[in-house]
Design goal:
With 402 residues, the protein is α/β, with parallel strands linked by helices. It has 2 domains: 117 residues, Alpha-Beta Complex (Aspartate Aminotransferase, domain 1), CATH 3.90.1150.10; 246 residues, Type I PLP-dependent aspartate aminotransferase-like (Major domain) (Aspartate Aminotransferase, domain 2, 3-Layer(aba) Sandwich), CATH 3.40.640. 42% of the residues lie in helices and 15% in strands. The chain contains 13 helices and 13 strands. The strands form 3 sheets. Strands 2-8-7-6-5-3-4 form a 7-stranded mixed β-sheet, with helices on both faces. A 4-stranded antiparallel β-sheet has the order 9-10-13-12. Strand 3, helix 5 and strand 4 form a beta-alpha-beta unit. Helix 2 packs antiparallel against helix 10. The longest helix has 22 residues. The protein binds pyridoxal-5'-phosphate.
């Protein structure tokens, strides 16, 4: 850690220990936490141990079922607490996209309903809305938010775009491109006041594990996320928090045995709670891995302490980049979380990312809007940001000089 850091010694030691437990950070400078978080070795061991234990107990035998059930309950409680909802409102999924998409297919659409999707949404959700529109005779409209500066402007755009037949608004909590925070509670309030009370789908891919979620989850009908980005868990396990009204009205389209209530009187009855959206056999060791990743992050601090660290890291990088001639940051103010997006005059985002990759720095590029994205987590250290700033400075801002 850089000298002069004002991080308390105990926290600094916890960050060093976490970094040392992440093999992904040993041989490169990693700025792509928003793509996938590095997995702590402790989580890898927890998964291996879980697999071993399941084999020892079963695998398909009552003692293994109890063991599996305990892991499922523990993780459901932990993630529900993170979202500020009771466990009954949380369904496990495989990733962010399935958390967004599976409940959407089960909502009661009427021909002519309008789906309002922000221009900062991930292609999987956008493609699903278009296919749903094709099948159900809905119409899709785009809500432009990527060029907005601040909550007020987002709300103005929303007011302009809402129509009497709007039935869904899809908006990420933090835009994966620019890193801007969307005013989800205020959006939820607007939708409540709308005569049609449109559903609010929130993609939490870039916010979960970084910012407090309670208010945004309370405003959303579906708040979907994954364990494999900012929570630094294994890939293949996510969850979605569902609103009470969605649970009352929604009818799952993909149904499997895991969604059944196991009622001897009515064997095909679905669970009354969010578990009705779970389908069939899952991978319990992933749950042990994600639980361990949650513990590993907590060792650095609680969510608010970690957000302060993340913002200190992203703010330092944002300020450093802004001092460079020819570099434009996408946000006019220090980032609300860990994403720092920018442009380098004279170079396409792809050129910048490729040139950095050759020098051992991992970032990603976007085409719309065209920018480079660097992600700072609690494990980002000032020397890494300094190195990135120095590399960008060395490019020069004339075309082709990277
Ligand atoms: C905002 C956003 N939504 C969805 C996804 C897709 O995630 P998954 O593969 O977990 O569905 C990503 C991945 O980067 C993302 O950033």
């Amino acid at each position: 850690m850089a000298s002069g850091s004002d991080v308390p010694l105990q926290q600094e030691q916890a960050i060093i220990a976490l970094r040392q437990d992440m093999p992904a950070l040993a041989n490169k400078i990693y700025f792509n936490y928003g793509g996938q978080g590095p997995l702590p070795t402790a989580s890898l061991h927890a998964m291996a141990e879980s697999w071993r234990r399941i084999q020892e107990l079963g695998p398909f035998a009552p003692p293994a079922f109890s063991y599996v059930g305990e892991r499922i309950t523990a993780l459901r409680q932990a993630l529900a607490a993170l979202c500020g909802v009771p466990p009954q409102r949380l369904a496990f999924t495989e990733n962010v996209t399935s958390g967004c998409v599976l409940p959407l297919w089960g909502l009661p659409w009427r021909a002519g309903d309008q789906l309002l999707i922000s221009d900062g949404e991930h292609p999987g959700v956008v493609a699903t809305c278009h296919e749903m529109a094709r099948r159900e005779q809905l119409c899709v409209k785009t809500l432009p938010v990527q060029d907005c500066w601040g909550a007020e402007q987002v709300l103005e755009r929303l007011d302009e775009a809402l129509q009497p037949r709007t039935r869904l608004v899809a908006l990420s909590h933090l835009l994966w491109t620019t890193g801007a925070a969307m005013p989800i509670p205020a959006v939820g309030q607007r939708l409540e006041e709308h005569a049609n009370h449109p559903w609010l789908l929130v993609d939490g891919a870039q916010s979960v594990g970084v910012v407090p979620l309670e208010d945004a989850v309370a405003a959303a009908d579906l708040y979907a996320f994954t364990g494999h980005k900012w929570l630094c868990g294994p890939e293949g396990l996510g969850a979605v928090a569902l609103s009470r009204r969605l649970l009352e009205v929604g009818a799952p389209t993909m149904i499997g045995w895991r969604g059944l209530a196991k009622d001897p009187e009515r064997p095909l009855r679905l669970h009354g709670d969010a578990r009705r959206y779970e389908i069939a056999t899952g991978c319990t060791p992933l749950m042990a891995g994600l639980l361990q990743s949650l513990h590993s992050l907590t060792a650095v601090g609680d969510l608010r302490q970690r957000l302060a660290l993340i913002r200190s890291n992203s703010g330092g990088l944002w300020r450093g980049l802004r001092q460079l001639e020819g570099v434009e940051t996408m946000l006019p103010e220090a980032p609300p979380a860990g994403l720092v997006s920018f442009r380098v005059r004279g170079h396409t985002p792809r050129q910048v990312v490729d040139a950095l990759a050759e020098r051992g720095l991992v970032l990603r590029s976007f085409e719309a809007p065209d920018c480079v994205r660097a992600c700072c987590h609690v494990t980002t250290v000032p020397t890494e940001s300094e190195r990135l700033i120095a590399e960008i400075a060395s490019f020069g801002t004339n075309p082709g000089s990277a």
